[in-house]
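PROTEIN DATA CARD
Card holder: receptor protein-tyrosine kinase
Chain length: 382
Origin: Neogobius melanostomus
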Amino acid sequence: IILHNGKSIKTTNQFLMLKFPGVRTYIDPLTYEDPNQAVHEFTQEIDVSFISIERIIGAGEFGEVCCGPLRLPGKRELQVAIKTLKAGYTEQQRRDFLWEASIMGQFNHPNIIRLEGVVTKSKPVMIITEYMENGSLDTFLKKNDGQFTVIQLVGMMRGIASGMRYLSDMGYVHRDLAARNILVNGNLVCKVSDFGLSRVLEDDAEATYTTRGGKIPIRWTAPEAIAFRKFTSASDVWSYGIVMWEVMSYGERPYWEMSNQDVIKAVEESYRLPGPMDCPEALYHLMMDCWQRERTNRPKFDEIVCLLDKFIRNPSSLKKLVNSSHRVSNLLVEHASVEGDCSSRNQTVGDWLDSIKMGRYTELFMEGGYASLETVAQMTSE
Ligand code: AMP
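Structure generated from the sequence above:
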């Protein structure tokens, strides 16, 4: 710590936490010379005899994910998820695997996946977390397409925003916020997960190498994070807007089949995802706000939670649905709205479609009677 008189004192992370209990800051496990020390400090060792593995529920990067009861002496039996590290691992893999636990162990919030503990003194090495009955949010939504009320969907988004507010208050930047990294429990409570390698994103199939060598899930990532790796809570807000879009469209893939390069170019040219089908206008406005090019203009998680709370308290604010003239089927819209663009630039429908890499649909538009951008702007989803 550097004191105000310029002198510095050496301290330990433990000291920091004890001395300043009100200031909750996340401590990067990288600050530990020995990563095992971070695991020791932030996690609780569980004796493997308290855990029963019942069945496999998924495949993680390092091994199977199972579930079963955890029976700690003197505590109520608890259903848990058990991540295992497969045999034959290297020391580096063991470190990477336990990395997630030493991050998760620092968090304590109802919308962040809770770490129960780790098993490191016997093999296989395990990470024990609370069990989330409905699995990851993207698959859950796809399985239940159209089944929830708007208020239920807003409740899910509110939970995710609240978890993200906590993380940003802690000074933790997630970098890989996406519906696939949110888990859902039996009461529809959504919790942020996947703290694994959020700094390098090696374990996310969506992450692709950029020209600068970093691995980034392009469709979910803010332009400044793609362009010069400026990952901040404001770039997490951009990703949050994409998660809102995934929720309102029941797990649809953002930007559909467009290539990553086309997504980058379209976003750079101010095009954004259109409002999902039957999406309340107020929610679409919030998404669009999260996708402001200038990151300081994006709302903070704090503001997002407050706004979503307002919507929940006053559901009539969600009655008005996205104007279907703004919703040109699966085509992107310009951030300043489609109409503005049509009149200002004197473009043809062909030019416009070309500019968003949809030129191949020009003929279809002409055949359908959409020969001018004015008529396109008045198009309805039917
Ligand atoms: P992960 O390695 O964290 O991406 O986990 C792989 C898969 O296992 C996830 O996509 C989920 O389907 C499942 N899974 C992971 N953690 C949990 C959990 N706590 N509760 C239920 N399912 C989980």
